[in-house]
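Hi support team,

I submitted a single chain yesterday and got back a structure, but I'm not sure I'm reading the token output correctly. Could someone confirm the output below corresponds to the sequence I sent? I've pasted both exactly as they appear in my results page.

Thanks,
R.
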Amino acid sequence: MAKKIAILFSGNGSNLEIIIKTLHQKAFKQAGAFIQKEGLLISGIDKQYIECQDYPKIEVVLALSNRSNAYGIQRAKTLGIPTQVLESKVYSSRESFDKDLVEILQSFRIDLCVLAGFMRVLTPYFVESIPCINIHPSLLPLFKGARGIEESFNAPMQLGGVSVHYVSNELDSGELIAQGVLIKHKQENLQSYTQRIHNLEHFLYPLAILKVLYGD
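Hi R., thanks for writing in. Yes, this is the structure output for that exact sequence:
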């Protein structure tokens, strides 16, 4: 039986595209100890994963956005993924939006919901109803919120990174699944740092999803 995931997003959808291309309609199994990537430090991922034929495949059954103009919709359609828009701006409360969102996701009988730039604070009702993970562009618990990259860049720390965590009732505060660390470069500007953070997200997020779906 396939392992079904839904991806929620609000904007460009770069993480969404990477997840689909890396995982959709593929099966994986553990294959020895995780090998660190040069220039990075990855924590929380202990095993390598390789493609195989005799394990359940991962199926991205839905890509859903709360904004009809999100470019990620086109990315998902191009890759053959069913898309849906649930416009959050027409709802009078977060609770009413999340109630309809949960109903949609439950109809797909998903194993996991993956947030990929979904710019919504989710309610306890959603968190208690749907198994869900998120990625944040800082080393949590530092620099929570929407300005995580900028605040991390401007901090005196010599390291930056990203965190994958379970979604909880408190913003960017759920149990950590994995983190990736990179070294800040001297004379680096915010644009360069941001791109390296996004590259790290693209590397780590599929691994963390595999850990959640297949174990570690």
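A quick pointer for reading it: The longest strand covers residues 58-65. Let us know if anything else looks off.

Best,
Support desk
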